[in-house]
Amino acid sequence: MRKQILAVLLFISSFGFSQSVDDYKAVIIPIKYEFTSTDNQYRLATISKYNLNNAGFEAFYDNESVTDEYKDRCSLLYYDIVKEKSFLTTKVHITLKDCYGKVIFESETGVSKEKAYELAYPDALNEAFASVNSLNYKYKEKEVKSTVDSIAVDKSAVSDVVSVTKNRITKPETLDLNDSSVLYAQPIVNGFQLVNSLPKVVMKVFKTSSPTCLIAVKESTQGVLISKDNQWFFEYYQNDKLISEKIEVKF
Fold first, then answer.
1. What is the predicted pLDDT for the residue at 5?
2. Which of 35, 108, 193, 218 could join 203 via S-S bond, C-beta 3.0 to 4.6 A?
3. How far apart are CA 177 and CA 143, in angstroms?
4. What DSSP character marks residue 157?
5. Which of 219, 208, 223 is nearest to 160 (CA)?
6. 180 burial type by CB count under 10 A (0-12 exposed, 13-18 middle, 19+ buried)
7. How would you label 32-60 residue by residue, b for 16+ Cβ within 10 Å and e otherwise?
8. Any alpha helices (H) in the chain, and if so which ranges?
């Protein structure tokens, strides 16, 4: 089992979980930034929302109410402006992060030689947005796909994965909202996100060539979700020690 888990972890590092901005349906913009002292100082929030909308994004301020369509925080990107150290110029770049704080996109640096901050920051920010515009963003609705789309595996194994996945997705389940320990699988690209009854995303799992062994990511911990004796276990290494946590999952 140790060799199997090590092999899967090596697969994680080499294959990765590539995400693009097109996988996210909207962007959340902060009103205040680390280097500013007041809300919307230098009109940075206003300029950001204007430019994001022009680039095709749905954009909301972080103090703005959103509809139920945007309640899943992991379907959103989180915008930030980063001030870079510089002498006699103002330099900033833009980051877009996922709900776990992972950088999905980082723009080119925008530079301004204006002396007044009221002019310099908007000027540099608008220049940084050139690389955001070049993304040609268009939201792509997520679909459940077979692992065969991205990984070359044994055909019979892929057939088993697809068959089991279809059965799991179409099987009706009644959520027991009184049981907070149960996680419920929701389809995402190449796998599922496991949510609790809040609902909150607790873990993401990704299909392999075996329907009983899934690559698993829980916050910053990476491991595998393995089915043994009709029960699921999240297994990972911590300080060179194999940890196995029983997880109740409804697919």
1. 56
2. 218
3. 26
4. H
5. 208
6. exposed
7. ebeebeeebbbebbebbbebbeebebebb
8. 2-15, 44-54, 117-133, 155-170
Answer whether 77's CB lies under 8 Å from 21's CB.
yes
Query: How many Cα atoms occupy the beta-carbon half-sphere of 176 within 13 Å?
Result: 9
Rounded-to-integer distance, Cα 133 and Cα 17, Å: 24
Question: What is the pLDDT at residue 106?
Answer: 96
For position 44, what pLDDT does the model report? Answer: 97
Whole-number Å distance between alpha carbons of 156 and 173 = 28
Number of H helices and number of E strands within the chain?
A: 4, 14
Phi, psi of 32 (to 5 degrees): -125, 145
In angstroms, the CA 184 to CA 36 distance is 41
User: Which whole number is the average pLDDT over 159-176?
Assistant: 42
Taken as a whole, the chain contains a residue count of: 251
Residue 241, both tokens: 């020690």
| Cβ neighbours, 10 Å, residue 220 | 8
Three-class secondary structure of residue 234 per DSSP: strand
Name residue 237's amino acid.
Y
CA–CA separation, 83 vs 91, rounded Å? 6
Question: pLDDT by residue (tens digit) across 100-159?
Answer: 889 999 999 999 999 999 999 999 999 999 999 999 999 987 654 444 444 444 444 445
171 secondary structure, DSSP code: S
